Amino acid sequence: MNHKTYRKLRKLATNPRLYFEDARLKRQYPEVEKHNTALKDAKMRFELGEIQTTETFLSDIPDTLPAKAVFSARVALFSKRHAEAERHAINAMQGTRPGTSTFQEAFYLHQEALRFQGRFESALTMLKGITFTDNAARYFRAWRLAALGAKCPEAFESVMTRLTPGDLGWLRSRNHYILLLRDLQLGERAIAEARLLMQQVELEPAGQPKAPPARSDAQKNRWQESAGLALAQLREDLTQYDIDFFLVSGTLLGCIREGAILGHDTDIDVGVMPEVSMTLLHQAIKNSRRFKLQEIVSENTLYVVHPNGVKIDLFRHYKENGKLYHAGIKCRWWNSPFELEKRSFLGDQYFVPVDYDTYLTENYGDWRIPIIEFETFLDTPNIEVTNILNMSLYYISQCIELHRGGRRGGYNKFRIALGTAF
Asked: pTM for the whole thing?
């Protein structure tokens, strides 16, 4: 038996639905393998941030091919062509069956396109008519964001109340509901729900501790390459608006101490000086085809993502009482004013504080010694809580996660912090 035949039989045995869907596509599109090769090349170019080349590859693939329609929706979302993304997603759903992964991916891209157009009621209508079963985080996130935009918590509650503690998705649904109440400024209800959830979870025995997943050397190298590409392209796009950014927080710590991104980091932190307005930052990202805003609202921070999946937090600093601050939705961090100079990082040159020792000491204390279980929202010396309710919700969420993960030491730290907060 040759390798190709073996792959087909294995797919038939392990995923018959996908096998028959592939067979249907091959009957409908005799050159589907050629088109899939072109699509693979297009995706590779997209992850490199080469948007025009991506579109050139796509132009040779039939518009009716569902996989192309799904990918075209993704590309359109990054290009801020939201109505076009909606149309591509609809075409993909019409060209495939509800149980397939292609249909489901198209469905959630369609949800995103509707939300970016402010059509939250339409998004809720689509969710109410969903024709497949999903208990993944993306399902509850779609409900939460649509209900948030429509200012309709009842819509989310109609889904949440169908689930009981033994059901898949029960805990996810509760977590997203608490976030929804928080973002709707229903703080007291959010705290009450969070405390109730914590009590319910703590009735169960603590989980068994597991070693945190570690990246292999190959994974670390790929992450560094992807992060370096995203960072360089963000600088290119912001430079068009005369915006310079500098490395901050964990990204700066990695640059100075390790000469690379910290091994456990999953995003990049950069900052801009107070002279750069949020309006200008929004305009720069709006006109970039290589970065998409994440749907997180914060007064002085933009959260963006590159086509290769690298997420970047962009903090606008502001002055107050002789200090420089940057902030999120629950706290802020202060630093003594600093000048900037360029330093080598990820194969390029980026701005960093000249007196990085003072900056990092203010942020981390003895920053030269790695701390394995450093908690950003507990252990940073220069943190100031600006929203006690949001911080309390975070503490509760960490207590739940650490209890279920059997990490008693971390759980106790957050339990103490939660008691202090109240």
From this structure: 0.90
